Request: fold
Amino acid sequence: MDSFEWNKIMGWVLAAAIAVLGLSIVTGYVYDGERPEEMGYFIDVPEDAGAAAVEVDPMVEFITAMQDPDVAKGEAVFRKCATCHTVEQGGENKLGPNLYGILGKDIASVPGFSYSNALQEEPGDWSYELFNAYMRNPRGTIPGNVMSFAGLSKVEDRANLVAYLLTYGGGPDLPAMPVIAEETDPEGTGPEEAKADDGPIAELADAEEVPESNIGGPAAENQDTTDAEDIHEAN
Reply:
């Protein structure tokens, strides 16, 4: 290929580059626009729009699920635990302690098992509240324990597991449903006060009531007179 052909090719490339540059400049002028002083569609986003939803009391959630647990499903859930635990009475300790009668039992109290310092120093017993929280998030509930299980995120799985464990050694009575405080009127007006201040409707109702002093008054006398005339005509 001689120099004439090369010059021809380079000329076309240069022309194409100039055309693209010119087109971009023209379109920039055509479609360029300044930000309007007042936006046409203003969306007012509340400050708490990104706030997390109100959390449900974990014990309310757990006890609700415990009203109708499925023991068979709890047995299936326990298979995740069976690698490290036994549940039968007199069962051996494995990587974890035997769990017979675990509900209500003192923490770190299974004979012959070497507990972590975190569990040995944890006071109290395996209450439903602690066990539910521990099975949901073992490391977060008792930091420093060495159980490798990540936890059960579904409350139904935890309730079914507890129902299954209760068939091996039983446990304490299920606690009552926690009482949820009702929201109070920030103005302090109760039902009676609200009823007493119903505005124009209440005033209209009061105005339509017949005063007791009018009972037996002129209207009643006129009615008696009319009744007497009707009786006279009938005779």
